[in-house]
Design brief:
With 550 residues, this protein is an alpha+beta fold. Helix content is 27%, strand content 24%. Among the domains are: 6-69 and 119-209 and 310-385, FAD/NAD(P)-binding domain, CATH 3.50.50; 389-424, no CATH class.
Length: 550
Amino acid sequence: MTERESMDFDVVIVGAGPSGLAAACRLLQLARDAGTEVSVAVIEKGAEIGAHILSGAVLETTALDELFPDWREQGAPVQTAVSADEVHWLRSPSADLKVPDLFIPRPMHNKGNYIISLGRLCQWLGQQAEALGANLFPGFAGAEVLYEDGRVVGVLTGDLGRGADGREKASFQPGYELRGKYTIFAEGCRGHLGKQLMDTYSLRADCDPQHYGIGIKEIWTIDPARHREGLVVHTFGWPLDSSTEGGGFLYHAADNQVYLGFIIALNYSNPHLNPFEEFQRWKQHPRIRSCLEGGQRVSYGARAVNKGGLQSLPKLVFPGGLLSGCEAGFLNGAKIKGSHTAIKTGMLAAESVFAALGEGEAAPAELASYEVAVRESWVWRELHAARNFGPAQKKFGLFLGSAFIWLDQNVFGGRLPFTLHSRQPDHAGLQLAASAPQISYPKPDGKFSFDRLSSVFLSSTNHEEDQPCHLQLLDPAVPMARNLPLYAEPAQRYCPAGVYEVVTAPDGEQRLQINAQNCVHCKTCDIKDPAQNIRWVTPEGGGGPNYSGM
């Protein structure tokens, strides 16, 4: 049996995203103000803080104002104020209509917000946490939850130096047991350990399924003559049909850069749809292409996002631990924002944990106070007002759904006396391939549209190749026996990194090839596989993308 070192802390935080780092900062602020000491460990599977962070991103500073009221004076990388908002309906491959401000749902207006790199903000939050006394451990992935007598007592970090066959190599280093009185799980959307905890403690027993989108993003440096710093553009319509939810964004950041991307809800029904290719098509629309003309693509990445909202929130607490941020699903779909709610719920988790630590032996194992604090916060009020946003789009489609949302948000202020639900999991909505229309995608032109492998190169993704595959097939026969004949094996299309390929051997036999080294950790396969046969587990710490400024 492998011997492992153990380290004890008051609090262990899994994930150095906005929620986990906010939790660390708030814990240590409270300890400082109370004249006491709290030991905090934050582990992050990325090679460095921010390496796996990807978001649009337009930031509402509500929570940051609460966490660090002097963030401007402290030099937070939040500087590009939104100067204008535009929403465009792309009616066809060449036509569009700018939507008058009057008809834009109120939560989508961005006055007072900032265009930021969330990765850089996390790096700054990491610096603040470290200055306050947090122990940051980038490159350490949370591989397993540690339990004792039904209570979470910390996490086990992943081993380093195991071969693809699972055996120890000469470079083997066993993972560490990081033990805490309480553990805050803030892994982000579709967290590996959070998913296990939801099953172990039946945290999803009383809520709708979580719903997701796949977000694909690029950063471009463009012609200064085409740049309008502070402009926020959102689009809907083409290239998607009216029954497929999604849309594009184009944010004019500082230094002649634009952040652009496309989000498609993972409840789409056509198995022939390819989210990456839809993004490439979208860039060819004159509304987008005219901005990119003469520019250069400098970065690429992809990430799943939560979009279930209030109805999809699980129970947030269990013996010894809590869920915060996108681990639980606090993104506000009506605002297309989740960073502010992630920061705030991380703070609320920290406040509940700090209060419990002060109670010593009398502290409860399950911190119900956190659930209460969330329900009494502006986060809950926001999500309650936006609760019908996602289900309305699913139930009514693009046009009727948009009309409903406008009435719900602009006339009734999110206070309609009913709550819509969407109880079908995203993976369950695929049509059979034989009955779904084929989609023909043009070849990339190398100027505006590109292939997946050259895109993954820009993400600086790297994994040690001789390690156990972190994309596990529960039944290796399912892809060829079921998914291929029924759904034309959609994994080869929904993955934005070219991880899954159906290859044919010289004897004509087909198999699913998994190129795990390409994986950008978006988790789409774990969500969308129609048989729920793919399980994403964490690879060696430090592997995966190494985003710069995403």
